[in-house]
Amino acid sequence: MADSRKVGVLGGGQLGRMLIEAANRLNIQVNVLDAAASPAKQISAHDGHIEGSFKDASAVKKLAQACDVVTVEIEHVDTHMLEEVAGEVAVEPSWKTLRTIKDKYAQKGYLKEHGVDVAESEDLEGKGAAGLKAVGERFGYPFMLKSKTDAYDGRGNYVVKTADEIDAAVKALGDRPLYAERWADFRMELAVMVVKTKDGVLTFPTVETVHEDSICKLTYAPPRNVSKATTERAQELAKKAIGAFEGKGVFGVEMFLLKDDTLLINEIAPRPHNSGHYTIEACPLSQYDAHLRAILDIPIPPSALRLREPAIMLNILGGKNPDSHIQVTHKAYASPNASIHLYGKGDARPGRKMGHITVTAPSLADAEKEMQPLIDFVDEQKGKSLGARTATTDEPLVAVIMGSDSDLPVLKAGLQILEKLQVPFTVRITSAHRTPDWLREFSKSAADTSLRVIIGAAGGAAHLPGMCASWTTLPVIGLPVKATHMDGWDSLVSMTQMPRGEPVATVGINNSTNAALLAVRILGATDLAVRERLRVWMEGNEKEVLRKDQELLDQGFEKYLKGMGKW
Amino acid sequence: MADSRKVGVLGGGQLGRMLIEAANRLNIQVNVLDAAASPAKQISAHDGHIEGSFKDASAVKKLAQACDVVTVEIEHVDTHMLEEVAGEVAVEPSWKTLRTIKDKYAQKGYLKEHGVDVAESEDLEGKGAAGLKAVGERFGYPFMLKSKTDAYDGRGNYVVKTADEIDAAVKALGDRPLYAERWADFRMELAVMVVKTKDGVLTFPTVETVHEDSICKLTYAPPRNVSKATTERAQELAKKAIGAFEGKGVFGVEMFLLKDDTLLINEIAPRPHNSGHYTIEACPLSQYDAHLRAILDIPIPPSALRLREPAIMLNILGGKNPDSHIQVTHKAYASPNASIHLYGKGDARPGRKMGHITVTAPSLADAEKEMQPLIDFVDEQKGKSLGARTATTDEPLVAVIMGSDSDLPVLKAGLQILEKLQVPFTVRITSAHRTPDWLREFSKSAADTSLRVIIGAAGGAAHLPGMCASWTTLPVIGLPVKATHMDGWDSLVSMTQMPRGEPVATVGINNSTNAALLAVRILGATDLAVRERLRVWMEGNEKEVLRKDQELLDQGFEKYLKGMGKW
Fold it and tell me: Does residue A107 lie in a domain region?
């Protein structure tokens, strides 16, 4: 055996199962405490598993005695027993961390104490309807009513929309220990998987999460239409939050990105998390590999957490029919980049997490295109209207900017080429002289968007592409436009003769076709699909000239010129 | 359960284990016939497995009775029992195929009959030393002596180097049924995993395989320094070969690429194969996913077999010490892109396949850089001299071509920039007018190499970049060189004014710095590491100008000009 240390896990659901997938590859034995046929045990044949509940103290003790490290796949465990065994066996993350995090109100208080931004919350335990009313007046409506403990996948949460709903909310959450949270008016939800090792804190990339009925439905890696600066801020915030806790392992950090770009922590999970499933295919090390390595002090090179390819993860939930989830996998069989994971669970109750699908592709736009039919299918299965579907837009790879709309007619042929070769683009008007600040802002942020190439068209002094090139690291193509004087020479020279340091790839005067084709070649340098479309297009041109040559040969020059109306 | 069909596998080694990894994710039950603690059974906990030998007819029958489809992870099985049960259970691939392939001499005869190119071979069964001598005279030395059956990983093979070795060879291979094969003087070995479904034949990408002591040591996907045309020919040959056999599933096709670019089939395996391990990380569907889908008639979209990222696979073999293989995995822990697979085997006998490591990276050069220390370490563990290590060269991403060596001084500054920003490049002399054929050949094949951008420097009529652009789909940067007349205007216009269809990205006259920086930007459009190096470099320039500005402010223009020696 590669590593004779034994790992014990409280809980044998899908997270434990995927942890075991990772452990199997390193020949590390994982002992699971859960029911006999639990998903994790199905893929791990040995006699070290324990049958019972991960909430049962005596079973936890038994597990601890047979292992070198004990970890969890769920936080709703008996932390008092973990505290008791912590002297004899390593418990990762620490029972203290588990105890703080499993109580969501305590979790938020702890984060606040450690200077981490969280949504404002207020204790309502024992305060009944009157307490809710007071909070409603202070926070305004809607606000979130949440159970402090045993709440997940929307269970234990209630959105109180008006004062009239208070009684219903109290009734719905019964005798649970409650607290209220101020409504976060977010633009989107982000999540970061954090890895805490003996040496420090590492992060996976930031992802966007989309919830439906309070259950994670989709994750997008990277998030859509979010700047690199914001994704980095999210990683920093997640790092700060997890740095405040004791112990080793991965942590899921869910947060809100508010409309003013503020980030607030929503919730923390002290274990692998749904928002990190995409890492199995999309990163060199998955969240499960990372968790295992972290708790066993096996090194994790930070760049092993990079994104290999953009990825989208779609949860497969139990649907309206017992086999709805199976229908989704059948549909996914036809999807070339879809990795399917089923968890070996029993009955598919509506909303139960039965599996997930990850699509990775060279671009997020490609992944979206492939995932959309699956999302539509899931929505159909649920009986949802298709109107509510996620918008899919091709993220532009090329920006075509011009100093004035008078340049647009010159650009027409080039834009048609981009369309023909299926390169998503955006066209903007920005002048180096009339809107210098706008141009600067656009150019400085371009590299953080989906853009890979910029075409700048300008006439006369034609500073547009040169200034743009000075503010970006992306390749900039200059298209000299013939202006009033000098037959276009002014524009041509203003672009080619850029100083050493900021090149502009200049093409012929008014030749927007070549500007577009150059953008296509630049994309095709690494995107073989684009390159292939270009090759086919060039082959078509070659054939057309060969055809004309044959016609000229067949007809003679006189007849040919007559055909051209030039005789 | 997602799919209630049960799959039976003869053999529970690493191939069966990785097949079960794939089956687990689809919740498909796989029953394994092999010894109790075999690698495949370790990750599949249910009571459907059968204990026994896959060569034992009665055990095969028992397995068949409990399954819907029976397949193999090894071809050395009892095909007569499979023939017998084939009426009651699906056997994939067909027992006929297994019977033909398990006898290597019959396999080659069958391929030859079906018009597939294989190395010339001759039956030696019962002919003894005299037979070998006759073959040696006909084939010349060296030639390969092989056992028709039960030969793998070099066992059952003997290279007969001279007539003097004939007795030793006969003795080494004992009473086995022998045949001889003409020596293939190959440039390298290639392999293709082929998938035969109910609807047709699909292929994974072509890979290069490197053997050591007749055991597969490394695979490179894609192969190093092989044109796209050749890799496609290899896929076609593999497709043709497997098209000749009956049944469904994946097949490994090993072939020789001879020095004259001829391809010859070496051997076929009717099952997942060592040369296809890389597909687990490098392709959307692995060879194991594909095998399972093929034998169960689950759809396989052809593009699911694409290469996500270049990949290198290194086998982990038992070494000189019992834990040599574990040392390799420890070393690999530090490698950010290494996926480690251990097979759960018992003792590590020297040469026994204990696991493998796959490194994927954005380029094969990156993967080589990361894998080399692991190869060196493996060689050290074996006690091999480091001199024999695989050569690693940075494959060039940029080609700088010029019409004449007189252009080289102008290029100097640009080449220094490429060096500084760590972009691997190659510099060549090729003239559009003096070596038009050479230029054509270079340009036409450029896209099939590691190249992503071409810089063409030329003066006067300056046709070089324009002609190059006409023969390639790669982006071409034109660097106008100032020639004898017209101050460089001739070159500048000859490049910018290319006809619609073949753009040349023209930079300023003699400004090789900008040509190089443009190439860097083009690479940086998709390679974030390159982009980051460029950003840091640009920031340095910015700081330098700001520093000078401050100095001018501090000193006044008079002192400053004096410092420049211009007062």
Answer: no
Question: What does the pLDDT look like over A205-246, one tens digit per residue?
Answer: 999 999 988 889 999 999 988 888 999 999 999 999 999 999
Chain A environment of B521 (Cβ under 8 Å)? 473-476, 503
In a domain, B536, yes or no: no
The CATH number assigned to the domain holding A164 equals 3.30.1490.20
Flag whether residue B501 sits within 8 Å of chain A, measured between CB atoms: yes
Instruction: Name which of A43, A333, A341 is nearest B43 (Cβ-Cβ).
Output: A43
List, for residues A310-357, the tens digit of each pLDDT value.
999 999 998 888 888 999 999 999 999 999 999 999 888 888 999 999
| Domain CATH number, residue B373 | 3.30.470.20
A175-197 burial, b for 16+ CB within 10 Å, e for fewer? ebbbbbbbbbebebbbbbbbbbb
Note the pTM of the prediction, 2 decimals: 0.72
Q: How many Cα atoms occupy the beta-carbon half-sphere of A415 within 13 Å? A: 17
Chain B residue numbers touching A21 (CB-CB < 8 A):
21, 24
Identify the helix (H) or strand (E) that includes residue A238.
helix A228-243
CATH number at residue A13: 3.40.50.20
Shared domain check, A262 and A227: yes
Strand order in the sheet with A249-258: A263-269, A249-258, A186-196, A201-212, A215-221, A311-317, A353-360, A338-342
Total domain count, chain B: 4
In a domain, A539, yes or no: no
Pairwise CB contact (< 8 Å): B476 & A521: yes
Q: Whole-angstrom Cα distance, residue A507 to residue B500?
A: 10
Task: Spell out which residues of chain B touch residue A28, defining contact as CB-CB under 8 Å.
Answer: none
Residue A100 belongs to a domain: no
Cross-chain residue pair B501–A538, CB shorter than 8 Å: yes
Residue A510's pLDDT is 94
Q: Are residues B230 and B244 in the same domain?
A: yes
On the question of pLDDT at A261 being above 80, the answer is yes
Q: Tell me, yes or no, whether A364 and A259 share the same domain.
A: yes
Whether residues B481 and B516 fall in one domain: yes
Q: Which residues of A touch B339 (CB under 8 A)?
A: 25, 284
Read off the amino acid at residue A542: E
State how far the Cα of B538 lies from the Cα of B416, in Å rounded to an integer: 15
Residue A391 pLDDT more than 60?
Answer: no
Q: Are residues A176 and A190 located together in one domain of the fold?
A: no
The terminus-to-terminus CA distance of chain A in angstroms comes to 87
Domain that holds residue B438: 401-524
B314 shares its domain with B421: no
Reported ipTM: 0.70
- Checking if the pLDDT of B449 tops 60, the result is yes
Q: What percent of chain A has pLDDT over 70?
A: 97
pLDDT of res. B102: 93
CA distances from A69 to A35, A76, B263 (A): 20, 18, 53
Interface test with B, best of A496, A536, A537 (most B CBs within 10 A): A496
